Amino acid sequence: MATTVDGFIRLFNNKIEAPVQRHLKNVYSCLAISTLAAAAGGYVHIFTDILRGNFLTSLVALGLMVALDIIPYDGGKNNSLRLGLLTAFSFATGLGLGPLLDVAIVVNPAIIPTAFLTTCLIFVCFTLCALYSDQYKWIGLGGTLMSGLLLTLLLGFATIFTGSRFLFQIYIYLGLAVMCAFILYDTQVVVEKFRRGEEDFIWHSVLFFIDFVDVFRFLVVILMDKEQSSRRKKD
Known about the structure:
Elements: H1 2-15, H2 18-47, H3 55-70, H4 79-96, H5 98-107, H6 111-132, H7 142-162, H8 165-195, H9 201-234
């Protein structure tokens, strides 16, 4: 086992140069902060009456993300401001997940930790796959992924208007597949952007955070669907 781990680390050091490793460390540190802030937002929605997640909080999250994008990276001088915006954006995103979490708790409270742990596992596996793959292997997926994302959105609207269970299942599984592929794509895009001189690790972490949240959201829906289907079969 020690030999395997040592070989894994040595391969990583040979594959990813030291400056890129330092950049990714900063990116994933920001992602950890974002995840904790989102978890706090979900907690506030579920267990307190201070704030409640709704459509308005989703708009606030969108506005904070736009503000973060507008304020340029200046070599670290305004990192405190931008980290504050990142944390606020993540907290508002967690609040926005609140209504979905409410439904999941009613169906089966175990769905939430299961979905979270599975999301973490998926994210780690797909990230490592992207880092150890050929440099431009997944970057070429950009156009295909945007088409898949558009198709997912259309299927979501079609499901709402038709109520078709068949379309709903295509929507949730296609959506999960597309978001998993975005982890591959965004990982290689972030590495390539850094190599070309873009050092904005805070904004790069936003890309990963969005991927993480969307994978989590689809997994929660899939697990709820499976739980409800299982109950219907028992009845």
